[in-house]
Write a structure and sequence with these properties.
alpha+beta, 2 domains, 5-stranded antiparallel beta sheet, two-stranded parallel sheet, 7 strands
């Protein structure tokens, strides 16, 4: 610490304050990053299973043209998972997910990537106010997209970020108060004793 004090030219208390603040900031930032990733990645879990089940059934001989999805899910309002099956040209075959009463199609690059690599996991933004956690898996002759809205997940992420932000502010306020008290204590002049003899 004395070496840092000599190099930086700041009092030891100031150096300790900034080091402590950096550690607290780094720890809380890491906590936020882990929390955000955990929420976001867990949003894919139901879709992964459904997409794998459908593509496995197709691989076992199920005709995609024979799949009937009677449920109609509004992607902008519902939190339910939906399914869209595309042919090799990216044209919808059947769907339970709709956007303005039409079946949406993800960007061509996403379907091309899926066809080449077998699977893609993306945050799909079909409209400015709609974000979808989408899993796309390929099958011989097309691809299957299973998705669901991220609205509730992103609400939880916002709540977590607010709590972590408040914790950061309180932590820095406490560190600042402690640093000020310590500096005042060290700068307080010594009180000379009185001789009563």
């Amino acid at each position: 610490m004395k070496m840092f004090k000599k190099i930086i030219g700041l009092p030891e208390e100031v150096i300790l304050y900034f080091l402590s603040a950096a550690i607290v900031t780094g720890a809380l930032f890491t906590l936020y990053a882990v929390t955000e990733q955990n929420y976001r990645l867990s949003a894919n879990d139901p879709q992964i299973q459904v997409a794998e089940d459908i593509t496995s059934a197709i691989a076992d001989g199920l005709d995609p043209q024979a799949i009937q999805l009677s449920e109609k899910i509004d992607m902008t309002k519902s939190l339910s998972a939906f399914i869209i099956i595309y042919d090799k040209d990216g044209k919808p075959i059947t769907s339970s997910g709709y956007l303005d009463n039409e079946i949406p199609v993800p960007p061509k690059g996403v379907l091309d990537y899926t066809a080449e690599h077998g699977e893609d996991r993306v945050t799909w933004k079909p409209t400015s106010g709609t974000r979808i956690a989408a899993i796309i898996r390929s099958y011989e002759g097309g691809s299957v997209l299973v998705g669901r809205s991220l609205r509730e997940v992103e609400s939880r992420i916002r709540s977590a970020s607010i709590m972590i932000g408040i914790s950061w502010i309180i932590s820095l306020a406490l560190l600042t108060a402690l640093a000020i008290l310590k500096m005042k204590k060290q700068n307080r002049p010594a009180v000379e004793g009185t001789d009563n003899s």
